[in-house]
Automatic annotation (TrEMBL), chain A:
<protein>
    <submittedName>
        <fullName>Multidrug ABC transporter ATP-binding protein</fullName>
    </submittedName>
</protein>
<dbReference type="InterPro" id="IPR013525">
    <property type="entry name" value="ABC2_TM"/>
</dbReference>
<feature type="domain" description="ABC transporter">
    <location>
        <begin position="270"/>
        <end position="500"/>
    </location>
</feature>
<feature type="transmembrane region" description="Helical">
    <location>
        <begin position="814"/>
        <end position="832"/>
    </location>
</feature>
<dbReference type="InterPro" id="IPR047817">
    <property type="entry name" value="ABC2_TM_bact-type"/>
</dbReference>
<feature type="transmembrane region" description="Helical">
    <location>
        <begin position="788"/>
        <end position="808"/>
    </location>
</feature>
<dbReference type="GO" id="GO:0005524">
    <property type="term" value="F:ATP binding"/>
</dbReference>
<feature type="transmembrane region" description="Helical">
    <location>
        <begin position="881"/>
        <end position="899"/>
    </location>
</feature>
<dbReference type="GO" id="GO:0140359">
    <property type="term" value="F:ABC-type transporter activity"/>
</dbReference>
<keyword id="KW-0547">Nucleotide-binding</keyword>
<feature type="transmembrane region" description="Helical">
    <location>
        <begin position="556"/>
        <end position="578"/>
    </location>
</feature>
<dbReference type="InterPro" id="IPR027417">
    <property type="entry name" value="P-loop_NTPase"/>
</dbReference>
<dbReference type="InterPro" id="IPR047651">
    <property type="entry name" value="ABC2_perm_RbbA"/>
</dbReference>
<dbReference type="Pfam" id="PF12698">
    <property type="entry name" value="ABC2_membrane_3"/>
</dbReference>
<dbReference type="GO" id="GO:0016020">
    <property type="term" value="C:membrane"/>
</dbReference>
<keyword id="KW-0067">ATP-binding</keyword>
<keyword id="KW-0812">Transmembrane</keyword>
């Protein structure tokens, strides 16, 4: 038995054509703390995902905690001993849940009982300083607190291997320091626990015992930080990292030596006075004031969510301030209007170019939108392409560009109109050090040579140190402003980072963590882990999903009110009654006989008479506009012919555009005509002679109101569509937000995950069902003639099946919008065509009949129709219900098989 | 002015490029204007087709046999013989839509002039089939009985004959109706989705902020989206009408297609504006999807495209006059089915343009407001 906790040998990983890992091999030692360093996109996250068992191993061999990670059985056994915190602030947490609810959820997944859970939660909250915020929703936590919560959730089950993927990116320096102190204390208490961390901050990497530097999917080198520095002969890790890069990558290295700013003009470019912005109760920016001189590079330093972006949006005029004033070149943005926008360039936080356009198309589009004349636009674009070294990528779509080049393109676009002022919101986050250096060299050039004022925000200390002046921002307030050197001096600190920390502490900062031990006692007794099915884990998901659903008013509202609205719309809209056919008469005869004929129609409830038609042309026109659905023409001499017993002919024109309406109208027309003939015959004393009579009995719906026939179908359709859509959204939402990782790395099984999430939606569907039945009987006036109990049981069985149908769709959709429309189409089409809503199932033949047999609605429709209009109960519908109940297990198994327990 | 037009033009080009590079949307568009239309045209749901019919023959006579064999495809499936005692049960299970009960001694009674009664049981829950089909069944039965009585002799003509003409669609072919309605529904659906998705996509990618900091007015941004989406859908509609409906399905179109396309453009202005407006209300793509369903479904179901608007309650008809899609459906049917000219449909055109202007103004007004509230 070696002391290796994890070993990887020659691991390769591809995403489509892109290679993320190229034959990586490494060994982690028990009780060690290893750090993966390198910029975004080099394969750090992929490697950690594989070690955590979240990603499938494509090629190579990985052993973790004494077994092959490729074996599902081994993963099942060891996953309670691994804790994994994926990248992104709290990506595997549930933002709508409170701190305590999040921890409870994770504890339940690892099978802890209530008492054990409470004890450990109290300890962890005390140790991380989160105890006062136990009831706060995770979405309202600061970045640092969110990461601490992530750590609590990871530690709740006392893991042997802790995997942290960029846990401190975008967190303020004090919170970062506290986070690492916490990890250190934890390691001191549990010396056997091994930790592996990825980070993009080189300065942070100094803390780790063992470093692994990665570039382009391969390991550049590894060793202790001191050894790495010594081997490369550099002073800092960042320099060492650059030195280790292959020569090709290092070629074209630019050192951003920005000369000190000369004593240029002191004209003020930007000034802010008491800027304040509120979002509801939340104070995003609180009384911020500063002024920036022309040609200055001014840095805004602070954590994610501290108000940097909001301040910048107020400066650009995107967001009106709640209070205070922002002036650009002495003018208010709004007042200056369009003219000012030509003087400002803005680069927003996310990459904000059209990814579907090529580099050249992007540049030209912006040049044109800034009103550059066509020839100047082309010249300007050529010049920019040269300055920003974009020549090789001119016809590449922006989506296909590496991050560093995209940032260059963004900057090129922001300066296309040669603005005097540049506002850049975190322009370099995620960019590798070399690209960052080039970017800053360009900024230096713009500032010093072209006198462009640059206002830039960042959370990298070394970038902030390059600015002429920086403002330290925290929780919506500017704590201090000054040149980096002045700030360090002022706070008696060696570096800007220490100055910031001192400043944060002076401002009250984040709550200092209690010095309590993190884990007073290890987990006493793990409950026996049920490998296949544990009701506790399932209900953990049920509880969580219910809480989330209750807090998401949009989805909840759609499920309940939206369904009721659609039900009423269908009830009123899908009306096949043809009641008041608008008709008019072109009476060329005008005799008592012709008037008697018209009287037969106007007296009928099925027809509504409009003003008489004047001419043949009018007949055509009035039918063409759709005003008349029926026109009757009585020829001259009609009265005379009838009186003399000579055959007469009447013309009738029916609007055939809407076929069923036309057919029904024809039926009414012939009925009225026949009655007229009968009356005529009776009047002449000749009784009609029919050889037989035909008694047509409209069963179940004597009045033949279409609402009685359609309503049960609408009920079945909505109960199929809406619960399926919500269910599909619920699963795909987890995929989009990233919390699906918890399915990959915790002991929860696919069946528990599916069933647990399904239960709240089934309950919700039953609530909607109750509302719809109430609407049907009270508002639409369709009485329930049969057994309510049979209808309810049938519905319950049905919604279990339809929610499973949604699950099935969700297994092959990757975005919520695809899941939404996919489910809608895949429900409505078979529902309308093969399930008996429009034409009865008994009329289907061939493929249609087979499709109908395979869709649950074909079995539910007889239940809803049967109970509502036919007065049936369990006795008659029992068999159908049994058939319907087979769908749930079948669809459930299919969905469970198709749902992946690992990411590709 | 020229500057505004230039801006709208270049932004519009960008929109069209973005649309063309979105594989899913292009696929959705092609599918809905071709296969979806074809399948709707071939949908037989609105007519009596393959109706299941059974006969409880308690007479077993020549006449009752003839009556049973009178039901022919494609309207009816071959009639099945059942026992009279099973009638109720089979109707309960919805095995048949029509069950005819021919009483004992039926033929004898007919021949003796005792005017016996045949009973036709119709499952009135079978929506469309039941109503129209019941009339067919009566006619077929009566014809058969008459033929038996007269033995093929000429029946004296009625005193007054009624010559019924079906205007605009002489055979009442549902395919005509369904394919045109399919196009109308697609225009409605795609215009809202495309315009709404274009805005949400810009917001999610952060490019909306970018546009708003440039020397562009919200009116220009919104107009570019409306025009670009309108252009794409108009092209698809034109191709679909000429190639699919007229060419492939060989459905005659009564009126002037150019006139209809003018109307479509007006309506696209309205529907795209609604899409833009919804996108300013929704915060994310899934929310837009849910909102879309709540807006589109009622518009589609209630504006007279699927079922006659005269059948709705009077108050609802009044309400629907305030929705542009009602006017769109009205002029679309008037032009395409009934060959109406501009002199007949201009009030509907005017109404659509008016509603479009209102929603466009609303969308532009919300544009800036919403982008401001979206916290970065």
């Amino acid at each position: 038995m070696t002391d290796a906790v994890a070993t990887a040998r020659d691991v390769w990983h591809r995403y489509g054509p892109r290679i993320a890992l190229r034959g990586v091999s490494l060994t982690l030692h028990r009780g060690g703390m290893a750090g993966l360093i390198g910029p975004d996109g080099v394969g750090k996250s992929t490697l950690l995902g594989i070690l955590a068992g979240a990603k499938r191993i494509q090629d190579g061999r990985v052993e973790v905690l004494g077994g092959d990670l490729g074996s599902a059985r081994h993963r099942g056994l060891i996953c309670p001993r691994i804790a994994y915190m994926p990248q992104g602030l709290g990506r595997n947490l549930y933002p709508d849940l409170s701190v305590a609810e999040n921890i409870t959820f994770f504890a339940s997944l690892f099978g802890q009982g209530a008492r054990e859970r409470q004890r450990r939660m109290d300890e962890l909250l005390a140790a991380t300083g989160l105890a006062p915020f136990a009831d706060r929703a995770a979405r309202n936590l600061s970045g640092g607190m969110r990461q601490k919560l992530g750590l609590c959730c990871a530690l709740i089950h006392d893991p042997d291997l802790l995997i942290l993927d960029e846990p401190t990116t975008g967190v303020d320096p004090l919170a970062r320091r506290q986070f690492w102190d916490l990890v250190d204390r934890l390691r001191a208490e549990r010396p056997a626990m091994s930790v592996i961390v990825a980070t993009a901050y080189m300065d942070e990497a100094e803390r780790f015992e063992h470093l692994i530097a990665m570039h382009d999917g391969a390991i550049l080198g590894s060793g202790t930080p001191a050894a790495l520095r010594r081997d490369t002969g550099c002073d800092t890790l960042e320099e060492s990292f650059i030195a280790m890069l292959p020569p090709v990558a290092r070629a074209g290295r630019v050192r951003p030596d920005i000369p000190p700013r000369g004593d240029g003009s002191h004209e003020v470019a930007i000034s802010a006075h008491g800027l304040t912005r509120r979002f509801g109760d939340f104070l995003a920016v609180d009384d911020v004031s500063f002024s920036i001189e022309r040609g200055e590079i001014f840095g805004f330093l602070g954590s994610n969510g501290c108000g940097k972006t909001t301040t910048m949006k107020m400066l650009t005029g995107l967001l009106p301030p709640t209070a205070g004033q922002a002036l650009l070149f002495g003018q208010e943005m709004d007042a200056a209007g369009m003219a000012m926008r030509f003087r400002v360039g803005y680069m927003s936080q996310s990459f904000s170019l059209y990814t579907e356009l090529t580099v050249q198309q992007n540049l030209l589009l912006h040049a044109r939108l800034y009103q550059l004349p066509e020839d100047r636009a082309h010249r300007r674009v050529d010049a920019l392409v040269a300055t920003f070294s974009l020549r090789d990528h001119l016809h590449v779509r922006a989506a296909a560009l590496p991050l560093g080049i995209r940032q260059r393109l963004s900057l090129a676009v922001a300066v296309v109109h040669e603005p005097e002022l540049l506002i850049l919101d975190e322009p370099t986050s995620g960019v590798d050090p070399l690209a960052r250096d080039r970017f800053w060299a360009l900024l230096g050039d713009l500032s010093r040579r072209r006198d462009v004022t640059i206002f830039v925000s960042t959370h990298f200390m070394n970038e902030a140190a390059r600015c002429d002046r920086v403002a330290l921002m925290h929780a919506g307030r500017v704590l201090a402003t000054g040149s980096p050197a002045d700030l360090a001096r002022q706070w008696n600190a060696a570096t800007l980072e220490e100055a910031f920390i001192a400043c944060l502490e002076a401002a009250g900062g984040e709550r200092p963590a209690a010095e309590a031990p993190v884990l007073a006692a290890p987990v006493v007794a793990r409950e026996p882990q049920h490998r296949w099915f544990s009701p506790r884990r399932m209900f953990a998901y049920t509880r969580r999903e219910t809480l989330e659903l209750l807090r998401d008013h949009i989805r909840l509202g759609f499920a309940v009110l939206g369904m009721a609205l659609l039900f009423l719309v269908f009830g009123f809209g899908v009306n096949l009654d043809v009641n008041t056919v608008p008709f008019a008469v072109l009476d060329r005869d005008r005799t008592p006989e012709s008037r008697a004929y018209v009287q037969a129609f106007s007296g009928s409830a099925y027809f509504a008479e409009h003003r008489p038609i004047a001419s043949a042309q009018a007949l055509h026109d009035r039918m063409a506009t759709g005003e008349l659905k029926l026109a009757i023409e009585i020829p001259p001499g009609f009265g005379r012919d009838v009186r003399r017993g000579r055959p007469a002919e009447i013309g009738a024109w029916i609007d055939g555009a809407m076929p069923f309406q036309a057919e029904t109208t024809r039926g009414y027309l012939q009925g009225v005509h026949a009655r007229f003939l009968q009356d005529l015959a009776t009047a002449r004393g000749k009784a009609a002679t029919q050889p037989a009579t035909i008694e047509t009995r409209f069963r179940y719906n004597q009045s033949f109101n279409s609402i009685n026939a359609m309503m049960p179908g609408n009920l079945a359709l909505l109960l199929a569509m809406i619960p399926a859509i919500l269910m599909a959204l619920a699963v795909v939402r987890e995929k989009e937000l990233g919390s699906i990782t918890n399915l990959y790395v915790t002991p929860v099984t696919r069946l528990e995950f599916i069933l647990g999430k399904q239960l709240p939606y089934v309950a919700l569907a039953m609530v909607s069902f109750a509302i719809l039945v109430a609407l049907a009987t009270l508002v639409l006036g369709v009485p329930l003639k049969g057994s309510l109990a049979a209808l309810t049981v049938g519905t319950l069985v049905y919604v279990f099946a339809t929610t499973c149908y949604g699950l099935l769709v969700s297994t092959f959709s990757s975005t919520q919008i695809a899941a939404l429309f996919g489910t809608a189409i895949l429900t409505v089409v078979p529902a309308m065509q093969f399930s008996g809503i429009m034409s009865p199932v008994s009329s289907l033949t061939g493929m249609g009949a087979v499709m109908g047999r395979l869709f649950p609605m074909s079995y539910y429709l007889p239940i809803s129709v049967g109970t509502f209009t036919k007065g049936l109960g369990f006795a008659e519908l029992g068999t159908t219900m049994l058939e319907l109940s087979l769908f749930f297990p079948a669809l459930l198994m299919l969905a469970a098989l198709l749902l992946r327990k690992q990411e590709r | 002015m020229l500057r505004h037009l230039r801006n709208v033009f270049w932004l519009g080009t960008k929109e069209v490029r973005s649309f063309l590079s979105d594989f899913t949307l292009v696929a959705l568009m092609i599918w809905s204007f071709s296969f979806s239309i074809i399948s709707m045209a071939q949908n037989t749901a609105q007519e009596v087709h393959n109706a299941a019919i059974a006969i409880a023959d308690e007479d077993h006579s020549q006449l009752s046999q003839a009556m049973a064999h009178a039901f022919l495809p494609p309207y009816f499936k071959p009639a099945q013989m059942i026992a009279a005692k099973d009638i109720d049960r089979l109707l309960d299970l919805a095995r048949y839509t029509f069950i005819i009960d021919i009483p004992p001694h039926f033929q004898r009674d007919v021949e003796a002039g005792r005017v016996p009664a045949v009973q036709v049981n119709v499952d009135a829950t079978a929506a469309l089939q039941a109503g129209v089909g019941a009339g067919y069944v009566q006619d077929i039965l009566m014809d058969e009985i008459r033929r038996h009585v007269t033995r093929g002799e000429q029946v004296p003509a009625d005193a007054v004959t009624l010559a019924v003409h079906l205007s605009f669609n002489p055979n009442a072919a549902p395919g005509w109706f369904m394919s045109i309605m399919g196009i109308i529904n697609n225009i409605n659906m795609l215009a809202i989705i495309l315009a709404g998705a274009a805005v949400i996509r810009e917001r999610e990618h952060g490019t909306m902020d970018h546009l708003l900091t440039m020397p562009l007015s919200p009116v220009e941004i919104a107009s570019a989206k409306v025009l670009a989406n309108g252009f794409v859908i108009s092209v698809a509609t034109t191709i679909s009408l000429y190639a699919v409906v007229r060419g492939l399905l060989a459905i005659p179109i009564a009126g002037s297609i150019p006139l209809f396309l003018c109307g479509v453009m007006l309506y696209l202005f309205f529907a795209s504006a609604v899409g833009l407006f919804l996108a300013t209300v929704a915060r994310s793509m899934p929310q837009l999807g849910l909102l879309f369903m709540l807006v589109f479904m009622p518009m589609q179901m209630l504006s007279g495209g699927n079922t006659p608007i005269e059948s709705e309650p009077a108050w609802l008809q009044v309400v629907m006059q305030g929705v542009a899609s009602t006017h769109f459906v009205s002029f679309a049917q008037a032009i395409l089915y009934r060959g109406a000219g501009f002199s007949l449909v201009w009030p509907d055109f005017l109404a659509v343009a008016g509603f479009g202007a209102v929603f466009f103004a609303l969308a532009v007004w919300r544009f800036r407001k919403v982008s401001a509230v979206a916290v970065g």
